[in-house]
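hiii, so i know i said id send this last week but things got crazy w the move. better late than never?? heres the sequnce for the chain we talked about at the cafe, plus the structure i predicted for it. fair warning i was half asleep when i ran it
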Amino acid sequence: MRSTAWEPVAVLLAVVVGGVLLLHGVGVAMRAVREPLATGPFSGGFEPREHPVSRFHVRWYPVTMVFLAFDMEMLFMYPWTKVVPEIGTSAVVEMFLFLGILLAGVGYAWREGAFRWT
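okay and structure toks below
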């Protein structure tokens, strides 16, 4: 029997279609049942004041951005501690420049009222 150039394509197509059907079957079998949420006491036994999937107030977003800025600072400082002895003074100057820019951002957020809760 002679092999044609289209046999590998047909096999690949069959494998892909079989995989898609298998994934669809697994998705149907593991689908969550859609029922209304029954809320009970949580957070130390207190009754909830809002829905668990409710949106956050807009005042949390600036605080989140400031947190991410400090988080990125820590990601930058960990490897910095390893290269300071090798590089020397220029590494220290770069770090203080970076911290100055970060401090300017925090000062701007403070001036704009990002940390005010009322």
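btw DSSP finds three helices and no strands in the chain. thought thatd interest u
miss u guys!!
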